[in-house]
Amino acid sequence: MAPVLMASTPASMCTPLKTLNDSLSHRRRYMKHNFPINYAIRVHHEEIFKLSNISKMKLKVEGLDELVLQRLWFQVNQGVLKKIIRVLPERHPSRPYTAELERRFRDAEGVFVQSHPAEVFQQELPETIQDIWDQLTEEPERVPVSSWRFASPKSLVDNLCHTMCCLFWECFSSTVSSLDYCAVSHSKKGRKTQSPELETAPTEPAEW
């Protein structure tokens, strides 16, 4: 089957993504200040999804379709937001914010699916991307210990925001220097590039 050719970001995606971005602008308060210092949650290695991951995949898979990366972005961050909500008690001050963030994310995902022909989501993924997809959807008890990592809620949501502005840059080109978001060093402009993914896990977080 010949690949379906289309613009990488349908115009209909911009409203829900900008609404999501509005919520993300408050992430420092809710994802950092309301958590204990050095608090971290357990996630798949693939869920630490940074701009550098996008660059590596584009180098590894020749002619990688932006739409494939967008699909992967939704799959990755769907799991990330669910994991953050899961660790928050009902009365935690960040729970309503995180639940709203997750709802707006699902709204954007719904528009994303509706904006493309069904056959787009039936196409075979490149092997590298399929391997990541399979690991993300693996039953937790079957995931090797070596495949888990620990990351702070703030860093995970930062990654969500930065990679969104890179992969859906058409929606943000009039408000931010969006192309800069596709550079590895964006989140620390004027300073050193981002540090590599966590290779060792911090101490297991205490129960709330």
TrEMBL record:
Gene Ontology cellular component annotations, sorted alphabetically: extracellular space
GO biological process entries: positive regulation of cell population proliferation; positive regulation of macrophage differentiation; positive regulation of monocyte differentiation
Taxonomy, superkingdom: Eukaryota
GO MF term set: macrophage colony-stimulating factor receptor binding
Entries under Gene3D superfamilies matching the protein: Interleukin-34 (1.20.1250.80)
Pfam families registered for this protein in UniProt: IL34
Protein name: Interleukin 34
Gene source species: Gambusia affinis
